[in-house]
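Slide 14.
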Amino acid sequence: MATYLESERLTLRPFTATDADLLIELDSDPAVTRYLTGGAPTPPEEVRDLVIPSILSGYDRWDHDLGLFAAHEKHGGAFIGWFCLRPLRSGPREKAELGYRLRQAAWGRGYATEASQALLAKGFTELGIRTVWADTMTVNRSSRNVMEKLGMTLAETIPTPDDMMAVEGSEHGGVRYVITKKQWKRRKA
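Slide 15: predicted structure.
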């Protein structure tokens, strides 16, 4: 499989139709889905019938430059989760969302920051992106820490989607962090 991006310890590659089991395993861990579904697993048939086709159609829509990418350790090849850098379906391409979901075994090792830094660099220097945002729940301190390490700043609070109202901490809503190309360049100088 072709490599999309490499960081010091990770390789990111486009997902394929044969990757459903990786996503099923990732989304079956209640700790991983705690702030998404309250810990409920994503049903395997949903991953196979809806998630994978949606990911693959995203590559077509964005010409493989932007999208959702499987992340593996360079040494040993272990799947650690996924990262995304993608515009809204109906939005301008110069604005993109940054996201990530990692297996518990990968938590606390700096992988989220490392791969996200590499994605920001690629987006701002090669892909014409001017603004990147990331959303998380207000109570998800670990994800917020990653965003802050990247130089992203808190831009606004956002309401909790109706389908997430049963998730622990949903009453506090969510937060959106943003970084512009100009801000990113200043940090690199």
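Speaker note: The mean pLDDT is 91.
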